[in-house]
Amino acid sequence: MAKFLVAVLLFSIAAAAYAAGKGQPADPIAPVILGVTGILFFAVLGRFGARTLGQPSVLGELLMGVILGNLGYLFAVDFLLVLREGPAIFDMVDLTLSGAPLEQAADEALGHKNALIILSILQGPGGAELTQVAHAVDVFSRYGVIFLLFLVGLETSIKEMREVGVESLRVAVLGVVLPFAFGFMAARLLMPELSVNVDLFVAATLGATSIGITARVLKDLGKARSHEAHIILGAAVIDDVLGLIMLAIVSGIIISGGFEPFNAIKTVTLASVFLLTAFIAGPRFLRVTINVVDRLDIVEAKMFISFLFVMALAWFANLVGLATIIGAFAAGVILHDGYFHQWGDIKEHQFTIRDLISPLEVILVPIFFVLMGIQVKLETFFNWHVIFMGCGLIIAAMIGKLLSGLGAARGTSRWAVGMGMVPRGEVGLIFASIGKSLHVLSDALFSALVLMIIVTTLVTPPLLKITLKKVPRQN
Amino acid sequence: MAKFLVAVLLFSIAAAAYAAGKGQPADPIAPVILGVTGILFFAVLGRFGARTLGQPSVLGELLMGVILGNLGYLFAVDFLLVLREGPAIFDMVDLTLSGAPLEQAADEALGHKNALIILSILQGPGGAELTQVAHAVDVFSRYGVIFLLFLVGLETSIKEMREVGVESLRVAVLGVVLPFAFGFMAARLLMPELSVNVDLFVAATLGATSIGITARVLKDLGKARSHEAHIILGAAVIDDVLGLIMLAIVSGIIISGGFEPFNAIKTVTLASVFLLTAFIAGPRFLRVTINVVDRLDIVEAKMFISFLFVMALAWFANLVGLATIIGAFAAGVILHDGYFHQWGDIKEHQFTIRDLISPLEVILVPIFFVLMGIQVKLETFFNWHVIFMGCGLIIAAMIGKLLSGLGAARGTSRWAVGMGMVPRGEVGLIFASIGKSLHVLSDALFSALVLMIIVTTLVTPPLLKITLKKVPRQN
Quick check: B296 and A47 CB within 8 A? Predict the structure, then answer.
């Protein structure tokens, strides 16, 4: 612990030295390095803290972000304030470059009160660079999410999905439908002033499942081979796909301009055409391309093909009105090492695609988690209405998933199955971040959803342990 | 080949679809994805073309960039025009955010003629996003250079440098000093109107060596074990360090405000203190930190520690007035897998640090090469003065390195040794890019230096083959 304080101290010295020399760094990348590396440093601290306390890493990183962002707000730390308002500031820059006067653009994008604060920061010494740094952090975090979903896709095999049992299927469907329904009702009742679009998005976020945390608890307790574990893990495979379909439909409706039968049909059609094309043309395209690039060595070939393929599908997904991550996920499901058989027996390849893409994910995803935490504005909770809303969402989220356990057959521990489905983790967070990008979620709603994610992720390990007590230990 | 045309066609369709939908992409990352992936796609094309013709990849990527950038200029492709003026546009945005009126900022950063063109692009539909995309490409390429130098550092061992023979040492020193001297003279004679700072920087760029190309030719000819090969490869190890020291001194002088005895002493002192501290405190710091993070798994630990360490040294290097890449190189020399012995015998580690950082380099470095190519402005050569200057630099660069062969003992093929030192490749390119960042190199000079790099890299393989004919084949 003392040694870690030394590390923190050294970092602070660096920050102070920066503040002293601020204004004229020789290499334009230096401020970006400081910002990105600083965020990653705190992410590692958060992850390390979470591991020490036996908690999932995503929780440590998110909470570290919430602490940083809100301390940054309290003590008016320029960089953190800029990161907190990130997306709005990029909108402001866009407006300014399009010719709008700076003050007017700031008012429009940030609101009058924030605009004054942010403009005074940006016009201070070294302030203009902060926008570039915030933009780099934003870009890195979004790339992180794309690689994360690509890796999730890589681990999802269609064959495995077909083999999932009826119980898992029932649990998975209930686990998406019930939280969606409860979430929608909670949103209607607690926030009647908001549009149906917003309600739909909130409800979709409640339907997400992140199974990583449950899987670890099951393993730690030596119950990874129990019947309950099989049901949960099977349901999780299906849930990733169901959740993404839900997201696709909801965000498609929002992008195309609101809930109308025509828009819904258009969205579903476009999404289906995109996915069908990807799954039919994708493998052919990969075979042809990989056949051509055989002059490259295998690491180059795997990296270039994987990167270009995942980015192409992410971009096309966006083009047809889906989220980029859906394209990335599809790319992961389609791509596998088998395509690279020209370089010899795939079992003897030194590096799998997963090995090669993981380093990108390891660096970039923690930046995403911390950034999302930073953008949680606790000050929005100084309002009873928002507190009610947050609690309502948490209750809807918990009950909806717990009841999904009813999909399991009698005789199994239905509470344990339901509890295993509760954590939202990174999947819910990605949904919330997309809602923010689409300007559907206000600061208050985004913050409430992130808190819901933190709470559901935090309560799962202890509650799961209790519900699993009756389940016999098997190894 | 036909199949590749299909790929190009598909990409063009994508670009056309983008142009059609331009203005309202749902996910703010989508344009960035298109831009970055597009650049990487052309990089892969260039690399593949170079391999097919038996040329080094860096050449294919650079030339692809030169072609793209200048075709983009001829046909007024918005995105390429923005990339071409990248750094100047970022300056403009900074000025605007600091409160300067947009037109005035543009005139100041871009010059009046370019300002009109660029502003009309940025104020067109979807134009504002182009700045963000260009910025992302710029950030990625700069990170690429940092990882590249880190990997070069990883492969440089101090032990190996001590074991290098006297002949190699003589060749290395001559190979930096002679091109520097000739380069300085050429710059003084051909460009008497420029300041001594500029001349120094041009001269330093001429002193760089990139040995990768020579090593491949030697291997292809089965002469990698000849005496000449040993001298060249030994000299290359020392040259990386000598070149970086030269760069440190020259850029330090420029940053601190011009060539004066006091500045030169200050630069050398600061650089020495930084490097000494890094080499003494670095290993201790690594041992303590790695000891603390043993709760993380080995891939996480290696990635986080490597990333944070290289970025910290890069940033500190910048702080003391050195280039970030010098810090990255030092980090590579200091760090090795041996520090991670807590996770078991290092020979049995599944992934080395090199394995984990390479994927980042494989994606990012080609983006750097293409971007540098794009920023070569061939239109600056419609001027006899610039053409003379370019030819003069190429001649100085060639003769300086060829004469370094005189450092080899009699009886060895001195021409072959000198010829092996000629290519500048990525090292020269990095120097030129830093000169551009420091606003030392004009567009014309930067373009002339990149051409010098292309020419020296292009002529080496055939000329080296001729000079090596007399050297007996050994395997």
Answer: yes
